[in-house]
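Run log // design_07
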């Protein structure tokens, strides 16, 4: 733990991240009846470009936005774009609690990708963590009852996309600042959105009722990642991660109140198993680093 560690303040930042992720799910469902996932990503990124550009100009950080790592930015943003589109699809076809439970597999996928991309070793502990985590996935999806639904498959693949984004973000942070990463995130994903949304020659324009929801999606995405980064700068992952798990009971309540979604004990059990595997991995890595 560093000298500036402040677990209480980190928990407050994590609450901001949790509320942002939850509001993004609600807003995503609200606009899904009018826009497809590519259009959501396109308009979200347009607003993101404006926000990030204003912040960069207001803080005088223009020189931090460089093009020296464009190839890595491209791979990172393709991975994130794919994951985010799959996530927006998943939240419209399966219960929100199931989406969030499967999203918690992100660290497990990131662990495997880090072995390939960053050359990190595959230890017995990491392999055990992966096996326990995948057991949790099986409990959440229960493929022995009618197979894995398309929505559950998309949610699991979204976690893989987010994991790829996380690994390449780690690679970028060795040479680039957060402002540079966010700038290319919004610019590249806006480009991907225009290409994918316009490939059929028909791009829907949000109605007056949908624009506020698009604004929520755009702002919530940026705020969530900023809050998460701040929290990790103030406390170790072993402290931050348990707070992040509070997303699950919160989204269970949101799903029940707003969408009349029933609470599935198997989803909660599987999610708890996935979380336990991730948390054990974090504790083991922390001890090893010390």
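design_07 sequence
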């Amino acid at each position: 733990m560093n000298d500036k560690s402040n677990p209480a303040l980190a928990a407050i930042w994590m609450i901001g991240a949790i509320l942002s992720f939850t509001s993004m799910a609600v807003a995503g469902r609200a606009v899904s009846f009018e826009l497809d996932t590519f259009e959501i990503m396109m308009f979200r990124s347009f607003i993101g470009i404006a926000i990030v550009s204003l912040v960069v100009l207001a803080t005088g950080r223009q020189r931090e936005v460089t093009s020296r790592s464009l190839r890595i930015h491209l791979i990172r943003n393709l991975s994130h774009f794919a994951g985010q589109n799959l996530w927006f699809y998943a939240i419209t076809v399966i219960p929100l609690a199931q989406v969030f439970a499967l999203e918690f597999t992100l660290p497990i996928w990131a662990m495997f990708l880090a072995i390939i991309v960053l050359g990190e070793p595959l230890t017995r502990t990491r392999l055990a963590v992966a096996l326990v985590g995948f057991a949790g996935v099986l409990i959440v999806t229960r493929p022995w009852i009618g197979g894995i639904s398309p929505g559950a498959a998309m949610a699991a693949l979204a976690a893989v996309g987010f994991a790829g984004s996380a690994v390449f973000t780690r690679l970028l942070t060795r040479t680039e600042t957060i402002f540079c990463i966010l700038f290319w995130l919004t610019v590249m994903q806006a480009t991907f959105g225009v290409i994918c949304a316009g490939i059929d020659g028909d791009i829907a324009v949000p109605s007056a009722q949908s624009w506020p929801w698009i604004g929520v999606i755009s702002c919530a995405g940026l705020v969530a990642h900023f809050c998460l980064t701040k929290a990790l700068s103030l406390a170790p992952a072993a402290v931050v991660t348990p707070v992040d798990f509070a997303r699950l009971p919160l989204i269970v309540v949101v799903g029940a109140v707003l969408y009349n979604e029933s609470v599935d004990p198997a989803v909660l059990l599987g999610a708890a198993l996935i979380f336990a595997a991730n948390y054990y991995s974090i504790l083991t890595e922390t001890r090893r680093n010390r």
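The chain has a mean pLDDT of 88.
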